[in-house]
TrEMBL record:
PROSITE patterns: RICIN_B_LECTIN (PS50231). One of its GO terms (cellular component) is Golgi membrane. Belongs to the glycosyltransferase 2 family. GalNAc-T subfamily. Pfam families: Glycos_transf_2 (PF00535), Ricin_B_lectin (PF00652). It is found in: Golgi apparatus membrane; Golgi apparatus, Golgi stack membrane; Secreted. Keywords: Disulfide bond, Glycoprotein, Glycosyltransferase, Golgi apparatus, Lectin, Manganese, Membrane, Metal-binding, Phosphoprotein, Proteoglycan, Secreted, Signal-anchor, Transferase, Transmembrane, Transmembrane helix. GO terms for biological process: protein O-linked glycosylation. It catalyses: L-seryl-[protein] + UDP-N-acetyl-alpha-D-galactosamine = a 3-O-[N-acetyl-alpha-D-galactosaminyl]-L-seryl-[protein] + UDP + H(+); L-threonyl-[protein] + UDP-N-acetyl-alpha-D-galactosamine = a 3-O-[N-acetyl-alpha-D-galactosaminyl]-L-threonyl-[protein] + UDP + H(+). InterPro entries: GalNAc-T, Glyco_trans_2-like, Nucleotide-diphossugar_trans, Ricin_B-like_lectins, Ricin_B_lectin. Coiled coil: none annotated. This is Polypeptide N-acetylgalactosaminyltransferase. Residues 354-479 form the Ricin B lectin domain. One of its GO terms (molecular function) is metal ion binding.
């Protein structure tokens, strides 16, 4: 008998007469009850194309995106079992079902003790309850909206295996995804490990894959981003391209860690509401409190990336803040290192804005960003697709009105409309290098010529200064503006 109980009690409200193998689960009946009707928007409910998702079989084949070396690697046989915790709120049934089935299909049976589905008060309780018929699946339902963090903690508290695996509710696991993660945690219980996350296209649900040269990071808006490994890090891996990747940050939705260590570190902050920020918070805490974070290249899991949140923030996202006093006390109790240590030892590539900066980060125009194009002194600048990895796209506007990339500044050599911008060494009182933000920080105007930074000639030679106009070629936005 499968028991399905609400958040505040253990009253049985759903009884399943028996378990079935996932192969025998009636996908058509389960998914068919919530299909998109003719004339309805397929993106409305989930912010991905539910029509395309619903067409797919629950056990569809996905390409094996692992490196060749992974396919010949033998994993240890005496690995600890894991409880897989999946939280969801109004998830598309087809996506949720594929997540569950992919775990069961792609994992050695003895390594998955249970799959714990935590239904965060979805509109239809049967979204989760019906999945409780499947072997190894347990379903917990909150009796009110609790949010991602408290829901995950509830699932973790209910877990019976020594290792926790957290997954989002719109994933598809690849071949032998679990063994390499469990092996690293078994070797060191203070390791938190994550797979390489392959992209599943939100429009057509094709399995796209992902670069294996990325690690997790963040910008100073405290938004997660993917960083390219440094040249030194890439060189160090040339002899072993499937070696674990030390990462300052994990994406947050997909990771594995020892259950006892999760509890020792304080689980999640139970004051955090709805969604967001938990990946940064747990990443900082792991590194600063004695653990480490790794991405394991031989583990690949697909994930549907959306451009919008499909759920609401009750009261508005601006109200989702809470006291952190208890977490500060915990940090002191655990003897955790300061954030300065993290920046210096874990993420030294992240440049900290200094007191001279007015704006900082990427300088964006639509999907493109101001880029050095690899040029140095006396070279031109252009635009390139934004990659959110700093490097050639990292700029600062300083209080002395310089637009700087390292020790190079945007320089107007000829103060006439149409003249090319050059990179030249920054000089303190050089009027050719003075810029200011105008029109609500949406444009950069050269002080000495009253001309604006313009991208109209980017493909033909580089950026220029032009007569200021409403043109989109002159719209620029810094990642972080430190003045209103």
């Amino acid at each position: 008998m499968d028991i399905y109980w609400p958040y505040s009690s253990y009253v049985c409200v759903f009884v399943c007469p028996g378990k079935v193998r996932w192969q025998d689960f009636d996908q058509d009946l389960y998914v068919g009850a919530t299909v998109v009707r003719p004339g309805q928007d397929p993106y409305a409910r989930n912010k991905f194309n539910q029509v395309e998702s619903d067409k797919l079989r629950m056990d569809r084949a996905v390409p094996d995106t692992r490196h060749d070396h992974c396919r010949h690697k033998q994993w240890k046989s005496d690995l600890p079992a894991s409880s897989v915790v999946i939280t969801f709120h109004n998830e598309a049934r087809s996506a949720l079902l594929r997540t569950v089935v992919s775990v069961l299909k792609k994992s050695p049976p003895h390594l998955v003790r249970e799959i714990i589905l935590v239904d965060d008060y979805s509109d239809n309780p049967e979204d989760g309850a019906l999945l409780g018929k499947i072997e190894k699946v347990r379903v917990l339902r909150n009796d009110r909206r609790e949010g991602l963090m408290r829901s995950r903690v509830r699932g973790a508290d209910a877990a019976t295996a020594p290792v926790l695996t957290f997954l989002d509710s719109h994933c598809e696991c690849n071949d032998h995804w679990l063994e390499p993660l469990l092996e690293r945690v078994a070797e060191d219980k203070t390791r938190v490990v994550s797979p390489i996350i392959d992209v599943i296209n939100m429009d057509n649900f094709q399995y796209v894959g992902a670069s294996a040269d990325l690690k997790g990071g963040f910008d100073w808006n405290l938004v997660f981003k993917w960083d390219y490994m440094t040249l030194e890090q890439r060189r160090a891996r040339q002899g072993n391209p499937i070696a674990p990747i030390k990462t300052p940050m994990i994406a947050g939705g997909l990771f594995v860690m020892d259950k006892e260590y999760f509890e020792q570190l304080g689980k999640y902050d139970m004051m955090m509401d709805v969604w967001g920020g938990e990946n940064l918070e747990i990443s900082f805490r792991v590194w600063q409190c004695g653990g480490s974070l790794e991405i394991i290249p031989c583990s690949r899991v697909g994930h549907v990336f959306r451009k919008q949140h499909p759920y609401t923030f009750p009261g508005g996202s601006g109200t989702v803040f809470a006291s952190i006093q208890s977490r500060l006390e915990m940090k002191k109790r655990l003897g955790c290192k300061p954030f300065k240590w993290y920046l210096e030892n874990v993420y030294p590539e992240l440049r900290v804005p200094d007191h001279q900066d007015i704006a900082f980060g990427a300088l964006q125009q639509g999907g493109n960003c101001l880029d050095t194009l690899g040029h140095f002194a006396d070279g031109v600048v252009g635009v390139y697709e934004c990659h959110n990895a700093g490097g050639n796209q990292e700029w600062a506007l300083t209080k002395d009105k310089s637009v700087k990339h390292m020790d190079l500044c945007l320089t107007v050599v000829d103060r006439t409309s149409g003249s090319l911008i050059k990179l030249q060494g920054c000089r303190e009182n050089d009027s050719r290098q003075k810029w200011e933000q105008i029109e609500s920080n949406s444009k950069l105007r050269h002080v000495g010529s009253n001309l604006c930074l313009d991208s109209r000639s980017a493909r033909m030679g580089g950026l220029t200064v032009e007569v200021c106009s409403p043109s989109l070629n002159q719209q620029w936005k810094f990642t972080l503006n430190l003045q209103s």
